[in-house]
Backbone:
């Protein structure tokens, strides 16, 4: 029987940090669960800003419907004019409900 190759852990989350991530995720879910199908703006930690319709929040992801790039758009079928952008909740700095 061969020995399994040695593993080198590159990153392991601190258990306290893991619990904090769960609490943050739950807090975000509670704050935005009533905003489904409404227009929001989000800003990521990388400085990117997106506006679109909040389609779903599940697990650690927020799903935002945004206009497709002109090269992706199909004018003959309006259902193809939007794309769903999945965003990781932990990379979001700001979520704003637009009236």
Residues:
């Amino acid at each position: 029987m061969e020995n399994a190759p040695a593993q080198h852990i590159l990153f392991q989350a601190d258990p306290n940090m893991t619990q904090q991530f769960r609490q943050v995720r739950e807090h975000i879910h509670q704050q935005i669960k009533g905003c489904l199908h409404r227009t929001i703006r989000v800003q990521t930690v990388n400085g990117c800003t997106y506006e679109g319709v909040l389609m779903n929040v599940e697990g650690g992801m927020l799903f935002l419907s945004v206009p497709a790039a002109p090269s992706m758009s199909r004018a003959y079928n309006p259902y193809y004019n939007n794309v769903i952008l999945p965003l990781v909740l932990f990379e979001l700095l700001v979520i704003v409900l637009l009236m």
